[in-house]
Amino acid sequence: MVGLEHGELDVVLHASPVGANARALRAGVESVVRTRFENLDGERQEEILEAAGEEFAERGYESASVNQIIRRAKISKGSLYYYFEDKADLFATVFTKASERFLSRVGGFDVEALTEETFWSEIERMGRLGLEALRRDSWYVRLVRSLKQGGPGGLSEKAAAKIQAWGERHTERVLERGQQLGLVREDVPMAWLVTMTMALGEASDRWMLEHIDTMEERDVEAFLTRALDAYRRLWSPDEAVAWDVDADEERR
């Protein structure tokens, strides 16, 4: 292994039997670290997340200072790394936990409780609440703006991957529930539908963040209506066509 760069070593490990054990060990370590933080008192969790969130929102991922987060949270560096694997893990945890708490504060989004009658109305309600939140100046909203707009300092590949995985899991749960209710197409692979949904959401978020400060109420309402229509068209069973993988392979 001498002479291999860090990324090349990861590739070698990933492809080897040793790599399977290494990945399992890494997943186990991450799970233990997450459990440690989640076992903290809820109020203390909030203090740490808010301290880190403020720093990331103000300075971006790369420029954010771990030492400043430690001072804000009134926590030792040893304790911080006891609860989080590294800076990327801290950022990903801040973003995902804050997103979950935002959903909880605005009335929650119980995927399993969605019915044929409430599926689209609940998605519209959450979209409306999300747009309202973007007009506020909380650290969470500034964090989202920084993330979606590239923000100062960018975002590490590891942190981005964790946030992407979190978003994909939540998106897949909504789509699966929609399929159970007969409201979401089943003619394409779930992975494809999740990817397309995430791409549509990313494009919509970026456009809205660039324009929301100058938009009037009627413009925001029109945007929400058109965005929901785009999701309906993407997900609708009425748009279903036969997915012939063999034919696709032959054409290629």
UniProtKB/TrEMBL annotation:
Signal peptide: none
InterPro entries (UniProt xref): DNA-bd_HTH_TetR-type_CS, Homeodomain-like_sf, HTH-type_TetR-like_transc_reg, HTH_TetR
DNA-binding region: 65-84
Keyword terms, alphabetized: DNA-binding, Transcription, Transcription regulation
Molecular functions per Gene Ontology: DNA-binding transcription factor activity; transcription cis-regulatory region binding
Entry superkingdom: Bacteria
Pfam families documented for this protein: TetR_N (PF00440)
Residues of the HTH tetR-type domain: 42-102
The protein, known as: TetR/AcrR family transcriptional regulator
Organism in which the protein naturally occurs: Lujinxingia vulgaris
Species classification: Bacteria, Deltaproteobacteria, Bradymonadales, Lujinxingiaceae, Lujinxingia
